[in-house]
Amino acid sequence: MTITCLDLEGVLVPEIWIAFAEATGIPELKKTTRDEPDYDKLMNYRLEILREHGLGLKEIQDTIATIDPMPGAKEFLDELRSICQVIIISDTFAQFATPLMKKLGWPTIMCNELIVAESGEITGFKMRCEKSKLTTVKALQSIGYDTIASGDSFNDLGMIQASKAGFLFRTTDQIKADYPQYPAFTTYDELLDAIKKELN
């Protein structure tokens, strides 16, 4: 019994913060987990910039409404879900992810939650658990599942390393160079074929 665990941003949908940085013209918000491995540090950095510019949840959600899944992502996910169980494990937040899950056909996602004031200001964030991707994969293994994992960033490496098979997808040259033991793919067909081989 195998569950495939996928990252969300950079794998199935574009990076939300990069899209928001482009929409607002604030280049500092383009920094992602590809650049900063410490997620708490990254989020606190982002919240400080939002405060400086008087931006809140509504402005980010307005940008998210314009984001579509990457070309081929929904078809890839539909086919993968027809052959095995799939969970998206993301460090994003429920307030960001829900509109994107609708566009992807409501797959299962495990993510975090923003703390939002009545004014709409994002005052903080609540992580579901520490090292959420690695912790979730280990929890699935503890109840009898094998896991296959794929992602593109530093924060995906824990679940990739802990799984029976792990794949990098549309990652950076630096991560590919640092982790040559993991096959790196750029198309959904390649990733789907690799997962299918592991399932057989």
The end-to-end distance, rounded to whole angstroms, is 11 Å
- Strand proportion, as a percent range, falls in 15-25%
Average pLDDT rating: 95
Multimerization status: single chain
Adjacency order of strands in the biggest sheet: 4-3-2-1-5-6-7
Note down, in words, how this protein is organized.
- With 200 residues, the chain is α/β, with parallel strands linked by helices.
- It has 2 domains: 2-13 and 69-112 and 128-199, Rossmann fold, CATH 3.40.50; 16-64, Alpha-Beta Complex (thrh gene product, domain 2).
- It is built from 9 helices and 7 strands.
- α3 (57-64) packs parallel to α5 (94-103) and α4 runs parallel beside α9 (188-199).
- The N and C termini lie close together (11 Å).
Provide keyphrases for this structure.
single chain, 200 residues, alpha/beta, Rossmann fold, thrh gene product, domain 2, seven-stranded mixed sheet, 9 helices, 44% helix
What is the element layout, followed by pairings?
Layout: E1 2-6, H1 16-24, H2 39-53, H3 57-64, H4 73-83, E2 85-93, H5 94-103, E3 108-116, E4 122-126, H6 132-142, E5 146-151, H7 157-162, E6 165-169, H8 173-178, E7 184-185, H9 188-199
Parallel strand pairs: 1-2, 1-5, 2-3, 5-6, 6-7
Antiparallel strand pairs: 3-4
Helix pairs in contact: 3-5, 4-9
Summarize the structure.
With 200 residues, the chain is an alpha/beta fold. The chain has 9 helices and 7 strands; from the N terminus they run βααααβαββαβαβαβα.
